[in-house]
Specification:
The chain has helices at 16-26, 47-52, 70-84, and strands spanning 2-7, 32-37, 40-43, 60-66. The chain is an alpha+beta fold and 85 residues long. The protein has one domain (2-84): Histidine-containing Protein, Chain: A, CATH 3.30.1340.10. Strands 1-4-2-3 form a four-stranded antiparallel sheet, covered by helices on one side. Strand 2 (32-37) and strand 3 (40-43) form a beta hairpin. The model has no long low-confidence stretch (mean pLDDT 94).
Length: 85
């Protein structure tokens, strides 16, 4: 299992556009990918789940990865977060 934490830097937090882009990226991997914020965990493959976390600027989120391609998924999603959120 792999994981990483990230602090949201986007002024609008996680909103619809980047959440949708994140879901598209997550669905390219076979690993189970979860996102946790404020004690709530959701599947990173669900746009509404991601948005329900209400992650605003300055909020720390944690991604966890479990599966065959977890290392590649962790690297790709970490890069996505740094570039988009």
């Amino acid at each position: 299992m792999k994981s990483f934490k990230y602090v949201i830097t986007d002024n609008e937090g996680i909103h619809a556009r980047p959440a949708g882009q994140l879901v598209k990226l997550v669905k390219t991997f076979s690993s189970e990918i979860n996102l946790t914020s404020g004690g709530k965990t959701v599947k990173a493959s669900k746009t509404l789940g991601i948005m329900s976390l209400g992650a605003k600027k300055g909020t720390e989120v944690e991604f966890t990865f479990e599966g065959e391609d977890e290392a590649a998924a962790c690297e790709a999603i970490s890069k996505f977060m740094q570039e988009n959120l």
